[in-house]
Write a structure and sequence with these properties.
Helix content is 14%, strand content 30%. It has 754 residues and is α+β, with helices and mostly antiparallel strands. Among the domains are: 60-193 and 254-380, no CATH class; 458-500 and 634-753, no CATH class.
Length: 754
C-alpha cells in the first residue's frame, strides 16, 4: 500500500489531466528551479540562527573552557649546535644524479669538472604547528523516505556540545554529524512537490526536431519524412515523450527532510621561519627538504624557544607562538602545539670547467642540488619558457572570444561600427576633423555700455505688492491697505548667459521581427556615423532623430525562442495546466464531493495558452527570425551656462533664475568671441572662462553648430515700508515685476509653518 504524502497538496497534486495529454506539452521547458533552497524553507533553531544552506556561515567560536587551561611546560635546554659537512665524493655524486635527471643537460661538467672549493653554512628552520578543531553548521536535505522527524521534541544541543572523536594529533580529518532535534519535512522546492521536473534533453516539450528532415516534415521535395511521419518532430528518447523526468532533488518523493549538519574539521596550521644565511641559495629552495632535528617540543600550548644561538630564531618563535594563540583561538579549539628546529646543511661547491668557474649547491638531508648557471644545457629551457608564454597568450584570447560570443553570433561586424553594442549604451562618437578650416569668430560690435539703472514708480511697486499678496491664500491684505512706503532703492544686476547648440551621435544594435524586409548587409560598405545626412532643427531647439544605417541589415535566428517562434507560457510555466481554482488542487469540493471543474485531477487547463503550454514569442512575434541592423541616434541639444553678478540689495540670486531683464547685448555665431570692454570686469572674465570651457568640453564628443551669448540688466527695487509702526522690506525684480517678501507680517499659521 502506498504511504500517504505528508503534505497539504493532496494525493493528486502534480498529476496530469488525461483530457490534455502528456505532463508537459510545451514547446520549451519552464525555467529551471532555484539552485538553492529558499530561506523560508528552513525552520529557526535556537543556537543555529546563522546557519545557511551550503555551509557558507563561517566557523563557530568555541566556548570558554570550564576548567583552567594547562600552563605550558618550560622546554628543556637545547643541545650543542654544530655544522655537519659532506665529503667531496658525496657532493660529486649528488651533482651527477642531478644532471642525469635533466634530459637536456650534458654530462661534460660532471666528468671533466674540477672542484676547487667547498663551503658549509648554518641554516636553521623553526617550525610551529598548531593542531586545532573547527566547527561549522549548514542546512542539508535529502529525499524523505520515512526517516524519523525530531524537530521540536526538545532543544537541539549546541554546536560545541556534540561529542566528536578527534584523530591522532596533527592528522587532517573531517567529520559530518547530523544535529539531533533539527529534522523536519518540507515540500521539494525544485519540483514544487510534484516529484517530476521538465526533461533537460527536450526542454519539457516531449519531442525534438526530427534529425532526418530537420523539422520540415519532408526529406526531398514532396517526399514525406517516414522517420517522423511528416510531423517534423520525434519523441524524446530521454523522457519517452513525457516531457518530464523524475526530480533529481527529491528522487520523485515530492518531499525533503531538512536538517542541520555539523561539520567538524581537524587541521594543522603551520608556519616556518628560515634564518637567512650567506650562502646565496634562495630560501624558497629549502621548502621541500628536511634537516637534522636539533630541538622538538610538543605540548597543549608551547613556550617560545629560549637561549638559541641565533637570536632571530628566538624572536621568530616568540612572535609565531603569540600569533597562533591569538589568531586561531577565536574560531577554533587548540588541541596541541608542536615546535621544531632543524639544521639544514647547505654546501656551496665551486668548480672549474673549460677554464671557467661555476657554482652549485647541495642542501638538505636529501642532498638536493641547485645549479642555475649549469654551463652545458641545450635550448629546451628557453623553449619551455616560450611555450608557457604562448599558452598564456592563447588562454587570454580564448577568454576574450567567449566574452563576446553572443554579440559575435547575433550581430555582424560592420566596419566603422565596431564599438556598437545592444541597448544603445555606447558613448557618443567624436566628430571627424572638419575638411575645411572652421570660420574664425567675428569680433562683436559692442554698444556703448551705460550704467543707467531703470527704476519703477512707487505706484507700480505697490501694485506689484498687492498682486503678490492676493496670490497667497493665507496672506492678510492689511499691510497692503495700511502700509506706508518709507524708502525705495534700485540696484543693477547683470546676468551673462552662454548657449552652445551641439549635435551628438551614437549608435546601437537594434532588431525587429523579420517579415521580408530588405537585407542589404555586405552589398557595399556602410557609411560612417558622421557621413550620414541628418536634418537639424532650428538653432537652439532640442530634438532627437533615429536613422537606420544603410548596408547593416541581416537576418538572424531569434535567440530567446531558439528560432521556434514560441516560448513557454508564463502563466502555467509551460505545463499547459494550473492548480484548479475551485478545489485548490485537492480534486474535491469543500463538502468532500468530486470537483467537476477539474474532473477530480486537481488541475485545470491554462486559460492563457489554451492548454498548449506555449505562447507566441514577444521578441520575434512568432516569426522565428529577426532583422538586425545598426541605428544611428542623433541628438541636438543646447548646453547653457550663466553667471550673475552679486549685488548689494540682499535678494538671493536664485530668485532671479525665473525672471528676465533688459537685454543689453546679444551675439550669435558658430563660435563667439569673449565680451570685451564691459564696465563690470567680472562679466568679461566669466565670458572668457565659459567660452573656453564650452569649446573644450563639447568639441570632444559633439559638433558645435552655433553659439549665442547675451547680457541682461535685471532691475531690483528694494522697498522699505512700515505697518503698525514696524519696518518691513520686500523686493520687486525683473521685467515680470516679481515680488519677494520673506518677512511679510500678516500670515496665518498654516502658510507660515507649511
Amino acid at each position: 500500500m502506498e504511504r500517504p504524502i505528508v503534505s497539504g497538496y493532496g494525493a493528486n497534486y502534480g498529476t496530469v489531466n488525461p483530457v490534455y495529454g502528456s505532463p508537459a506539452v510545451a514547446a520549451m521547458a519552464a525555467p529551471p528551479g532555484p539552485s538553492a533552497p529558499p530561506a523560508n524553507m528552513f525552520d529557526t533553531v535556537p543556537g543555529y540562527e546563522g546557519t545557511v544552506a551550503g555551509g557558507g556561515g563561517g566557523y563557530l567560536p568555541p566556548p570558554m573552557p570550564t576548567v583552567p587551561m594547562p600552563v605550558p611546560e618550560q622546554a628543556p635546554s637545547p643541545p650543542d649546535w654544530h655544522i655537519p659537512s659532506i665529503s667531496e665524493e658525496r657532493a660529486r655524486e649528488a651533482f651527477a644524479t642531478y644532471v642525469s635527471s635533466k634530459c637536456c643537460y650534458s654530462s661534460g661538467p660532471v666528468k671533466d669538472g674540477v672542484i676547487t672549493n667547498m663551503e658549509s653554512f648554518n641554516t636553521y628552520r623553526y617550525r610551529l604547528e598548531t593542531f586545532m578543531e573547527s566547527r561549522s553548521t549548514e542546512w542539508s536535505q535529502e529525499p524523505y523516505a520515512g526517516q524519523p522527524v525530531d524537530a521540536g521534541f526538545q532543544p537541539a544541543p549546541g554546536p560545541w556540545q556534540i561529542a566528536a572523536q578527534p584523530p591522532a594529533f596533527f592528522q587532517e580529518h573531517k567529520q559530518t554529524i547530523r544535529v539531533p532535534n533539527t529534522s523536519s519535512v518540507k515540500n521539494c522546492h525544485v519540483c514544487l512537490g510534484m516529484g517530476r521536473s521538465p526533461c533537460d534533453t527536450c526542454t519539457g516539450a516531449g519531442s525534438k526536431v526530427c534529425w532526418v528532415c530537420n523539422g520540415s516534415g519532408f526529406r526531398q521535395a514532396d517526399d514525406r519524412c517516414t522517420h517522423c511521419n511528416g510531423r517534423g518532430r520525434e519523441n524524446c528518447s530521454s523522457c519517452s515523450g513525457n516531457g518530464s523526468r523524475q526530480c533529481d532533488t527529491c528522487h520523485g518523493k515530492r518531499q525533503l527532510i531538512v536538517f542541520i549538519n555539523l561539520n567538524v574539521k581537524w587541521s594543522t596550521e603551520k608556519d616556518d621561519f628560515v634564518a637567512q644565511d650567506l650562502s646565496g641559495l634562495q630560501v624558497a629552495k629549502l621548502e621541500k627538504v628536511s634537516g637534522k632535528e636539533l630541538f622538538k617540543d610538543a605540548q597543549y600550548m608551547v613556550y617560545p624557544v629560549m637561549g638559541f644561538p641565533d637570536f632571530s630564531v628566538a624572536q621568530a618563535s616568540e612572535r609565531l607562538v603569540r600569533d597562533h594563540q591569538v589568531k586561531y583561538a577565536q574560531t577554533s579549539r587548540i588541541l596541541q602545539q608542536r615546535q621544531t628546529i632543524e639544521l639544514i646543511p647547505i654546501t656551496k661547491v665551486s668548480y672549474m670547467w673549460k677554464g671557467k668557474s661555476h657554482v652549485y649547491y647541495v642542501y638538505g638531508n636529501e642532498f638536493q642540488v641547485n645549479a642555475e648557471d649549469y654551463p652545458a644545457t641545450c635550448c629546451c629551457s628557453v623553449m619551455s619558457e616560450i611555450k608557457l608564454q604562448y599558452v598564456i597568450h592563447v588562454v587570454k584570447q580564448v577568454a576574450l572570444i567567449c566574452c563576446n560570443l553572443y554579440v559575435a553570433r547575433m550581430f555582424d561586424s560592420v566596419p566603422g561600427y565596431e564599438g556598437t553594442s545592444g541597448g544603445g549604451d555606447g558613448a557618443y562618437l567624436p566628430p571627424p576633423m572638419p575638411s575645411v578650416p572652421m570660420p574664425v569668430p567675428e569680433a562683436s560690435s559692442h554698444p556703448e555700455w551705460h550704467d543707467n539703472i531703470p527704476s519703477i514708480s512707487e505706484g507700480r511697486a505697490w501694485e506689484a505688492f498687492e498682486d503678490y499678496v492676493s496670490s497667497k491664500c493665507c496672506y492678510s491684505s492689511g499691510p497692503v491697505r495700511d502700509g506706508v512706503i518709507s524708502n525705495m532703492e534700485s540696484f543693477a544686476t547683470y546676468r551673462y548667459r552662454l548657449e552652445t547648440f551641439t549635435e551628438s551621435r551614437s549608435t546601437e544594435l537594434s532588431q525587429e521581427p523579420y517579415t521580408g524586409q530588405r537585407v542589404d548587409a555586405g552589398i557595399q560598405r556602410a557609411p560612417g556615423p558622421w557621413e550620414i545626412a541628418a536634418q537639424p532643427p532650428s538653432y537652439f531647439t532640442e530634438h532627437e532623430d533615429t536613422i537606420r544605417v544603410p548596408y547593416t541589415s541581416s537576418v538572424k535566428k531569434c535567440e530567446p525562442c531558439g528560432g521556434m517562434g514560441m516560448k513557454p507560457c508564463s502563466s502555467c510555466t509551460g505545463t499547459g495546466s494550473k492548480v484548479c481554482s475551485q478545489c485548490n488542487g485537492s480534486g474535491q469540493s469543500p463538502d468532500n464531493e468530486a470537483c467537476y471543474n477539474c474532473n477530480c485531477s486537481g488541475r485545470e487547463k491554462c486559460s492563457s495558452c489554451s492548454g498548449c503550454g506555449s505562447q507566441m514569442c514577444n521578441t520575434c512575434d512568432g516569426k522565428g527570425k529577426l532583422l538586425v541592423f545598426v541605428n544611428l541616434k542623433v541628438k541636438w541639444s543646447t548646453e547653457k551656462d550663466e553667471y550673475v553678478v552679486q549685488d548689494s540689495s540682499g535678494l538671493r540670486l536664485e530668485k532671479l533664475a525665473k525672471v528676465s531683464g533688459k537685454e543689453l547685448f546679444r551675439d550669435a555665431q558658430i563660435m563667439v568671441y569673449p565680451v570685451l570692454g564691459f564696465p563690470d570686469v567680472s562679466v568679461a572674465q566669466a565670458s572668457e572662462r565659459l567660452i573656453r570651457d564650452h569649446q573644450v568640453k563639447y568639441t570632444k564628443s559633439s559638433r558645435i553648430l552655433q553659439q549665442r551669448q547675451t547680457i541682461e540688466l535685471i532691475t531690483i527695487t528694494k522697498v522699505n515700508y512700515t505697518w503698525k509702526e514696524k519696518p518691513y522690506v520686500y523686493y520687486v525684480y525683473g521685467n515680470e515685476l516679481k515680488v519677494n517678501a520673506e518677512d511679510y507680517p500678516a500670515t496665518c499659521c498654516c502658510c507660515s509653518v507649511m
